[in-house]
């Protein structure tokens, strides 16, 4: 065994050594974040062991866990203890922490799957070491240590806030590497060591659970690879405008998760038949198609039909219909309700599941933030908006009587936390009490939202919080029977025809007014700064103005303008970015664009860039030539925009269209 590499780290008592053990825990439980050839690790058992001569092992498992893992850990410890002692500095009587894990290789598209590799990991907190001991099973079914692949990670205190993280391993002649579960020594010394050093001082504590924490990772990896291969042709024939790579493989991953989750549920509950489902707000319907093909009876409902629906065939049941939460949209014979990026229906899905039947369960993957009555309004500044919204949807599930579980999916999306309601927290005879509780909760949310909206519009309520607390005793009679069984009169389902709301459809005069207003604000934010115009413009100096944050810009716009922009996706920022001739928005700050500093985009090939520039050249008036007090910073021959109507020319695109027609 020799020193493979050392990385220096700095951290006071609040950071190290605690940060080091947190980093080790990441490598133990989520090795795939460093080694992309692994799909994860299964922790089979962990507990305290004694290196004494009697070979005692007393693994401690959490309540409710089976003792098989503890027994296996104890047996392994007794088998390998004598081989292990030379690698440990601990003397007799000292407690060590042992973890038995199985490394799970990522399933390959071709060839036989690589088997899991068991490792015994021993942590000596007092000496700052953690030793990884791969295990091999011999012909008699007993495990022995694969000595050539033992490695140890050490934390050493040098002095004050100086520490070092080191990896010790055998010589390269003895080390065996398959590039997957046994990586190369150079990878351990370079990649893993640098990651451990970085994690040790980052002090990042994720507010979300580890990915796939509720299902077996190995089973997920196998099924995902099978489905990915099965549905890869969908990418080639995808008729929608959305990115096929993202949407196909994301729905494959979500389908895989549900299939494994449901298989585990059938084992747990002794169910013979595969679960039925309804996907509310099914969108492109691919998730419904996959689940149906895998033997689950179900259907999808969406307000708007998609082109791709016609490609699935009659076995995939998809319906074009609006869903308004109420008595007419219950699913008493359905096992699971699915909300995959279900927008305005997201908080309603636990309610619909609770009222459909006592046995109905649900799965939601929240994306856009909606309350029962419309857009979700933030109430806690100490949380991220995403975390706050997830907590709200989880709260809805709890109010509906579900034991809500949270997990994180492996999908190409920033919004990948799902909430699952599998089991109820109340007996069947209490359904009516829970239903009243749900009614009260929805009414309270609606009333508080009205108060908050009134306050925004200038109505004064002396005590917002008192009013929200007090409405629970003022529930209108027969509220839930209003409007022919609709649970919330005035609920607005998604519009059948999707509107363009990226500021592109706003009236031109409105947009021009905002652009001029913001530009003048930037130009007058500080005394005019002069820059030498060395590029031959029509003036010797040119004022680039000052930069302001989006918040500062918004504060100078009137309420009506802001209200109109809020109804568009991205609001003020989107409008300014759309007008990229005039503005640059960088890191939340707005700048006047200086065209003298513009460089060609690296993302666009030079020949394509030249073609696009030629087609668009002088087809629009130069904003700066007309509105900027110093005119345009570029001379007419260099500016891509027209300096006056006499320079305007017709767009090549328009000419082509006229020729075609």
UniProtKB/TrEMBL annotation:
GO terms for cellular component: cytoplasm. Its main location: cytoplasm. Keywords: Cytoplasm, Metal-binding, Methyltransferase, S-adenosyl-L-methionine, Transferase, tRNA processing, Zinc, Zinc-finger. It catalyses: uridine(44) in tRNA(Ser) + S-adenosyl-L-methionine = 2'-O-methyluridine(44) in tRNA(Ser) + S-adenosyl-L-homocysteine + H(+). The keyword Zinc-finger applies. Its EC number is 2.1.1.211. It holds the Pfam family AdoMet_MTase. The keyword Zinc applies. GO terms for molecular function: tRNA (uridine) methyltransferase activity; tRNA(Ser) (uridine(44)-2'-O-)-methyltransferase activity; zinc ion binding. Adenosyl-L-methionine (AdoMet)-dependent tRNA (uracil-O(2)-)-methyltransferase. This is tRNA (uracil-O(2)-)-methyltransferase. It comes from Gallus gallus.
């Amino acid at each position: 065994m020799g020193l493979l590499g050392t990385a220096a780290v700095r951290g006071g008592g609040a950071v190290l050594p605690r940060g080091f053990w947190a980093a080790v825990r990441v490598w133990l439980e989520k090795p795939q974040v460093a080694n992309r050839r692994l799909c994860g690790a299964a922790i089979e058992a962990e507990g305290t062991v004694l290196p004494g001569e009697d070979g005692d092992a007393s693994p401690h498992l959490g309540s409710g866990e089976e003792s098989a893992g503890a027994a296996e850990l104890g047996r392994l410890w007794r088998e390998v203890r004598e081989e292990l002692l030379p690698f440990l500095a601990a003397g007799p009587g000292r407690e060590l922490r042992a973890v038995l894990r199985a490394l799970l290789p990522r399933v390959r598209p071709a060839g036989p799957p690589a088997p899991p590799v068991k490792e015994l990991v021993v942590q000596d907190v007092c000496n700052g070491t953690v030793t990884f001991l791969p295990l091999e099973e011999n012909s008699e079914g007993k495990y022995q240590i694969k000595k050539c692949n033992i490695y140890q990670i050490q934390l050493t205190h040098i002095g004050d806030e100086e520490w070092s993280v080191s990896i010790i391993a055998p010589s390269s002649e003895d080390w065996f590497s398959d590039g997957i579960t046994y990586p190369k020594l150079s990878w351990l010394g370079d990649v893993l060591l640098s990651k451990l050093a970085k994690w040790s001082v980052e002090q990042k504590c994720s507010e979300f659970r580890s990915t796939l924490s509720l299902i077996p990772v190995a089973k997920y990896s196998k099924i995902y690879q099978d489905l990915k291969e099965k549905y890869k042709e969908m990418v080639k024939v995808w008729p929608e405008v959305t990115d096929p790579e993202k949407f196909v493989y994301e729905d494959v991953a979500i389908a895989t998760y549900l299939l494994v989750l449901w298989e585990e549920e059938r084992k747990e509950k002794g169910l013979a038949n595969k679960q039925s489902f309804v996907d509310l707000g099914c969108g492109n319907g691919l998730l419904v198609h996959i689940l149906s093909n895998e033997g689950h009876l179900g259907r999808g409902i969406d307000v708007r039909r998609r082109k791709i629906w016609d490609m699935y065939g009659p076995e995939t049941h998809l319906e074009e219909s609006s869903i308004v939460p109420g008595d007419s949209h219950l699913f008493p014979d359905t096992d699971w309700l699915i909300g995959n990026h279900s927008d305005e229906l997201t908080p309603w899905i636990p309610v619909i599941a609770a009222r459909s039947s006592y046995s109905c369960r649900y799965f939601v993957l929240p994306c856009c933030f909606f309350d029962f009555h419309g857009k979700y309004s933030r109430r806690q500044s100490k949380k991220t908006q995403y975390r706050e919204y997830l907590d709200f949807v989880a709260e809805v599930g709890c109010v509906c009587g579900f034991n809500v579980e949270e997990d994180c999916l492996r999908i190409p999306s920033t919004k990948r936390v799902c909430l699952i309601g599998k089991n109820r927290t109340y007996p069947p005879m209490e359904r009516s009490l829970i239903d009243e509780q749900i009614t009260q909760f929805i009414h309270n949310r609606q009333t508080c939202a009205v108060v908050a909206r009134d306050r925004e519009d200038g109505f004064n309520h002396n005590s917002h919080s008192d009013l929200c607390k007090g409405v629970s005793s003022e529930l209108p009679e027969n509220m839930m029977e209003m409007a022919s069984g609709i649970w919330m009169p005035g609920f607005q389902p998604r519009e059948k025809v999707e509107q363009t709301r990226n500021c592109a459809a706003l009236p031109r005069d409105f947009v021009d007014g905002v652009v001029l207003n913001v530009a003048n604000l930037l130009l007058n934010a500080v005394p005019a700064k002069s820059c030498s115009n060395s590029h031959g413009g029509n003036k010797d100096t040119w004022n680039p103005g000052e930069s302001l944050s989006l918040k500062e810009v918004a504060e100078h716009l009137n309420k009506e303008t802001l209200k109109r922009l809020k109804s568009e996706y991205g609001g003020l920022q989107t409008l300014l970015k759309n007008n990229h001739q005039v503005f640059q928005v960088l890191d939340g700050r707005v700048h006047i664009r200086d065209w003298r500093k513009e460089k060609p985009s690296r993302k666009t090939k030079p020949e394509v860039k030249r073609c696009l520039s030629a087609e668009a050249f002088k087809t629009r008036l130069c904003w700066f030539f007309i509105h900027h007090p110093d005119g345009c910073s570029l001379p007419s021959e260099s500016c891509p925009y027209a300096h006056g109507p006499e320079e305007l020319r017709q767009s090549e695109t328009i000419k082509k269209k006229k020729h075609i027609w």
